[in-house]
Design goal:
Layout (H helix, E strand, L loop, with lengths): L22 E8 L3 H12 L2 E6 L8 E8 L2 E8 L5 H9 L2 E8 L3 H10 L11 E5 L2 E9 L5 E9 L3 H5 L9 E2 L4 H7 L9 H12 L4 E10 L5 H10 L4 E6 L10 E8 L6 E8 L6 H8 L5 E9 L2 H10 L9 H17 L9 H7 L2 E5 L2 E7 L10 E8 L9 H15 L3
Parallel strand pairs: 1-4, 5-8, 10-13, 14-17
Antiparallel strand pairs: 1-5, 2-3, 2-9, 3-4, 6-7, 7-8, 10-14, 11-12, 12-13, 15-16, 16-17
């Protein structure tokens, strides 16, 4: 597990473009119980429970747990009163993604440009700066589909993104639960007094037994029928994204269900956000099932997490008890000829991963003119059939597994039928 992923590079020199996105700063989840959710993601997916902001650090309204793995930062937030938005939304929608936050050079300027472009401010989302003796963070938020928001984040001093990636404190009032003392000293977080032995134990286990997840490859939003083009225009106009890929119901359909999808990408292709809407079919698509169980409200359906070794990561996750979709044996009787022909026709070498291990682990494979990819989707991460993860490895391909759509949908329909939702 020493191969590095070639994540898109960003020029870290000050940009004149206010909407130059540097990174996915973090993905915030609203959850019913942040402490319990932290243990779930740590145990099943190998995340470090790295930092906390709660009653013990002076946060009186909500508890926040920062989970990290590679360049992935999940922020789990639960309200400490029934009136807190996180408590209300977790009750209404179940645990799910609230905020896809972007690191920018100047959050206030990014916000001003987005508002000028037609964005609506999120509740309480006007620019605000929090600072202490270690540094400052400026945040500003706009609304997107459903109850989801995008927050622009600009960081300075000890809270600079470079320091955060090295294990520095995420923001004022956050306290590291474990890590090098040097990292703590950089932002004055102090000793690890009061850290539970269970957290230290699971973090130590995950450090010795990594799952190999590196960063967020893309995030998929589900919107109501007839609204996809509205939100495509929103990302084009407000965030100045462009369309990267387009799939219609002829691409993504089975005998029973269909959907349409358009992939929106930031100017440097660093951030990719596919948007799905249901299409007419004999029965319900996975998008309609999501909407039915998400209070008929659009939201983030799944996050694709990138690895540079799909076989290693899937084996590690399966060993931890992660439930993945199952594919019929017939899929592997056809996939290799299709994929390897595509690769050789475009001058690429065939799939290098062991074919039998790919089959044993239930991994999907697809190819295009740029190379191939390996991917696998978890079952829903909670009782409501809403949020799930995709584990993806790219060997040149920048697509989304178009050749797997039919097999994937058939697998999803089997699970929908078990739930009585097809």
């Amino acid at each position: 597990m020493t191969t590095a992923i070639n994540q898109p590079k960003v020029d870290l020199q000050r940009s004149t473009d206010p909407l130059q996105l540097i990174d996915v700063d973090h993905v915030r989840f609203h959850v019913g119980n942040a402490k319990q959710a932290a243990f779930f993601y740590a145990h099943c997916f190998g995340f470090q429970i790295e930092q906390v902001c709660d009653l013990t650090t002076g946060s009186r309204d909500a508890a926040h747990y920062l989970l990290t793995q590679g360049n992935i930062r999940f922020l789990l937030t639960s309200g400490l009163s029934t009136e807190h938005p996180a408590a209300l939304e977790a009750a209404m929608y179940g645990d799910g993604v609230k905020d896809v936050a972007f690191t920018v050079f100047d959050a206030e300027k990014a916000y001003d440009r987005a508002i000028k472009n037609g964005a609506t401010p999120a509740p309480g989302g006007e620019p605000r700066t929090v600072r202490d003796e270690h540094g400052a963070i400026t945040t500003a938020s706009i609304r997107t589909y459903g109850k989801c928001i995008h927050t622009f984040v600009s960081r300075g001093g000890g809270y600079d993104l470079v320091n955060v990636k090295k294990g520095g404190v995420f923001a004022p009032r956050f306290k590291r639960l474990e890590g090098s003392h040097d990292a703590c000293d950089a932002t004055g977080c102090g000793p690890q007094s009061g850290v539970g032995s269970s957290i230290l134990s699971i973090n130590e286990y995950n450090r010795k037994n990594p799952c190999g997840l590196k960063y967020v490859d893309h995030l998929v939003g589900n919107v109501e029928m007839g609204k996809m083009n509205y939100w495509v225009k929103f990302y084009e106009d407000v965030l100045e994204f462009s369309m990267f890929k387009h799939f219609d119901d002829a691409d993504i359909s089975t005998e029973y269900s269909a959907l349409m999808s358009k992939v929106m990408a930031s100017g440097n292709n660093l951030i990719k956000m596919p948007i799905n809407e249901p299409a007419e079919g004999k029965k319900k698509s996975q998008v309609q099932e999501y909407l039915d169980w998400h209070n008929n409200t659009p939201g983030v359906q799944h996050l694709a997490l990138r690895t540079d070794d799909e076989l290693y990561s899937i084996a590690a996750l399966r060993a931890r008890g992660v439930d993945f979709l199952s594919l019929p044996d017939a899929y592997y009787e056809q996939v290799w000829a299709r994929v390897n022909k595509m690769l050789t026709d475009h001058g690429h070498t065939p799939v290098k991963e062991d074919h039998q291990k790919v089959r044993d682990l239930g991994i999907l494979v697809d190819a295009d003119d740029e190379g191939y990819l390996l991917q696998l989707f978890t079952k829903p991460l909670q009782d409501r059939p809403t949020l799930f993860f995709e584990i993806i490895c790219r060997r040149g391909s920048q697509s989304f597994g178009k050749g797997n759509f039919k097999a994937l949908f058939e697998a999803l329909e089997i699970e929908q039928e078990k739930r009585g939702n097809l």
